[in-house]
Design brief:
InterPro entries: SNase_OB-fold_sf, Staphylococal_nuclease_OB-fold
Mean pLDDT: 87
Helix content: 25-40%
Oligomer: single chain
Family: Belongs to the LCL3 family.
Number of domains: 1
Largest sheet: 5 strands, mixed, barrel
CATH topology: OB fold (Dihydrolipoamide Acetyltransferase, E2P)
GO molecular function: endonuclease activity; hydrolase activity
Protein name: SNase-domain-containing protein
Structural class: alpha+beta
Low-confidence stretches: none
Shape: elongated
CATH architecture: Beta Barrel
Radius of gyration: 28 Å
Keywords: Calcium, Endonuclease, Hydrolase, Nuclease
Length: 232
């Protein structure tokens, strides 16, 4: 009598076929998702932002650092950055500044307010040129890191600006302007302190006691905020 072999091959059931197809599709979907995810991350890493309008809100909300070269300083708290992402780290900005608003990022240094320079027929505040020149001496032509905190009503990036001296010592532009007495702590609406308000207040108070910069001026000092409100 011929007995059946328990190890004999049985025909695949429809359930097995569906399971195999599902596994294959899931595996291919996973590979595709990983590939697209990695490609997108690489694209974002190597993408150069021409202006602040090109910077996604997700970058600002996550405070992801942006690196670049400072190509212009317009006053004691505003500069223009030529963004240099990973693959363009050593790229140099155009020599001509004409039309730079189309290929550079306008950055408003967070937490500080420097004396107003002369513009639109309005007179300059005392020490406004000194504030501009001091900031330029610290960052102009140098590679800096900007940690974006917000975008203001003018579309500028409001952020902490960090730079190095001798490639070793790290400085915060907001701190340095306050220390020199060439800016005051910004206390207006939507002020961004990057979690350092108390520290910044102490730095400003120290400059006041030492009568540095605007705190050493004779007569009552008019803050930039008061000046702007008066000349609206």
């Amino acid at each position: 009598m011929h007995s059946s072999n328990s190890n004999s091959t049985r025909p695949p059931s429809s359930t097995d076929s569906y399971s195999e197809r599902f596994y294959t599709y899931a595996k291919h979907g996973l590979y595709l998702g990983l590939t697209l995810g990695i490609s997108y991350r690489l694209y974002r890493m190597f993408q150069r932002y021409q202006t602040s309008a090109d910077i996604p809100d997700s970058i600002v909300k996550s405070h992801r650092p942006i690196h670049g070269i400072v190509i212009d300083v317009s006053d004691g708290d505003t500069l223009r950055l030529y963004h240099t992402p990973a693959l363009q780290w050593f790229s140099a900005p155009p020599e001509k500044k004409r039309g730079m608003s189309k290929w550079s990022i306008s950055v408003r240094i967070s937490a500080v307010d420097a004396p107003e320079v002369s513009h639109f027929g309005k007179p300059a505040q005392p020490l406004s040129n000194e504030a501009k020149e001091y900031l330029a001496s610290q960052v102009l032509g140098k590679r800096v890191t900007v940690v974006p905190l917000a975008k203001d009503q003018y579309g500028r990036i409001v952020g902490s600006v960090y730079y190095r001296s001798m490639y070793v010592f790290k400085y915060d532009a907001s701190h340095e302007m306050l220390k020199a007495g060439l800016a005051v702590l910004y206390r207006g609406g939507n002020a961004q302190y990057n979690g350092e308000k108390e520290l910044l207040e102490r730095i400003e108070e120290e400059a006041k006691r030492a009568k540095r910069g605007v705190w050493g001026l004779k007569g009552k000092f008019e803050t930039p905020a008061a000046y702007k409100a008066k000349h609206k």
